[in-house]
Design brief:
alpha+beta, 3 helices
C-alpha cells in the first residue's frame, strides 16, 4: 500500500512555459531539499475550460503518486508521446503533442537538469 508523504510548508519550484495547440502551458514542479520532484501544477494561458480541468486532475494525480513514492520516470514513460488533435505544426524536434506530453517533457527536463 502506498502512503502519501507530507508536503513541506515551503517548497522550491521551477516553472517552464511550453507552447501547445491549446495555448501556452505553464508547468510548475515543486521539489524537496534533495531536488526530488514532489508536486506538479499545470496551467493553460487561457482561463478555465475543460482543458484546464483535465490538467488540474492529471497534475493532482501525479503529485499524489510522487508523494507516495512512484518514480517520476514512470509518469514520463506513460505521458510522453500522447497526442491531441489540436497540436501545432512545429518542427518535429520542437513539437509538443499535447498537454500531457508537455508535462512529461517538463518532468524529463527537470530530472535531466538534476543529473548534471
Amino acid at each position: 500500500m502506498l502512503v502519501k508523504g507530507e508536503r513541506p510548508r515551503v517548497l522550491q519550484s521551477t516553472t517552464e512555459k511550453i507552447g501547445t495547440g491549446c495555448g501556452n502551458l505553464y508547468i510548475t514542479i515543486g521539489h524537496n531539499e534533495d531536488n526530488k520532484p514532489i508536486e506538479v501544477f499545470a496551467t493553460l494561458g487561457k482561463a478555465g475550460g475543460c482543458s484546464q480541468c483535465q490538467n488540474e486532475a492529471l497534475t493532482r494525480a501525479i503529485t499524489l503518486g510522487l508523494r507516495s513514492g512512484i518514480p517520476v520516470e514512470s509518469y514520463i514513460k506513460e505521458l510522453k508521446g500522447l497526442e491531441c488533435p489540436s497540436k501545432k505544426m512545429w518542427p518535429e524536434n520542437e513539437r509538443v503533442l499535447s498537454c500531457p506530453d508537455g508535462i512529461a517533457r517538463a518532468l524529463e527536463a527537470f530530472i535531466g537538469n538534476d543529473k548534471k
